[in-house]
Amino acid sequence: MTETRLPTHAGAVFGRYAAGVLARLLYRVRVVGGENVPRSGPVILAPNHTGFLDAPLLMGTCPRPVHTLAKKELFKGPLGWLLHGVGQIPLDRDDPSRGMIKAGTGVLDAGRILVVFPEGTRGAGDFSELRTGLAWFALRSGAPVVPVVFTGTAARGRTFGAMPGLRSRVEVVFGRPVTLPTGGGRTRSALDAATEQLREALVAHREAVASRIEERK
Q1: 1: pLDDT strictly greater than 50
Q2: Biggest CA-to-CA distance, the chain
Q3: What is the per-residue pLDDT for 164?
Q4: Sheet (strand 113-115) strand order
Q5: Which residues make Cβ contacts (< 8 Å) with residue 145, sequence separation at least 6?
Q6: Is residue 212 part of a domain?
Q7: Which residues lie below 8 Å from residue 111, measured CB to CB, with a gap of 6+?
Q8: Per the domain annotation, does 102 fall within a domain?
Q9: What pLDDT score was predicted for residue 4?
Q10: What is the DSSP string of 162-197?
Q11: Which residues form the signal peptide (predicted)?
Q12: For the chain, how big is the Rg over CA atoms in Å?
């Protein structure tokens, strides 16, 4: 098994700049709640996930550089070289490796931002079912978890044809940070309880964003 190294901060800085420029050339991007991302220290971003655009859009709009846990299948050929170069981390969703865990915790221990898609894959993006990885990293690090919701990035879909058209309006909405109680332990029951607490916070943020969209219509 190949050891996953701690991604470089410089790569993530470059990735943020490049993704931000590209996103704003291709789409009409609006960022809401960027002030909710702490300006220093370890942070975990927990976005919903409905389309291919979500990860690069978050990379380009977060106020700070990010390191994203992304499925290992993407880390092949030129795309894999690029993802490694901009500081992203390969993830085997069925069998997380020690190297990936070390890289993720290393990012947080270094006071950086780790992006964990809590649902584990693209889907409805409603946070109805969460994997336990998000809570594990939050309990392990004590880092605040910032909910993120995308609008306009895609209807539910798994093909590039589901991506929004050029110059479409897309929005990235950062919610208020959630910090899990300290001293909760790392037992399975503690992990399940923390996962449910985070799920409720993420669902509340998504519903607040949906209500605001309805009010604008």
Answers
A1: no
A2: 52
A3: 83
A4: 28-32, 169-174, 145-151, 43-47, 113-115, 66-71, 89-91
A5: 44, 45, 46, 134, 138, 177, 178, 179, 180, 198, 201
A6: yes
A7: 40, 41, 42
A8: yes
A9: 59
A10: GSPPTT-EEEEEE---B-PPTT--SSHHHHHHHHHH
A11: none
A12: 16
Q: Which phi and psi (to 5°) does residue 77 adopt? A: 65, -155
* Contact predicate 134/34, CB 8 Å: no
Q: What angle do CA 61, 67, 70 make, to 5 degrees?
A: 100
The answer to whether residue 1 is domain-embedded is no
| Tens-place pLDDT, residues 18-39 | 999 999 999 999 999 999 999 9
Token pair belonging to 85 = 């170069």
Find the domain containing 67 and state its range: 9-216
- What is the DSSP code (8-state) at residue 58? H
Q: What are phi and psi of 46, to 5 degrees?
A: -125, 90
Name the residue type at position 59. Answer: M
Question: How many distinct structural domains can be found in the chain?
Answer: 1
Whether 165 maps to a domain, the answer reads: yes
What CATH number is associated with residue 153?
Answer: 3.40.1130.10
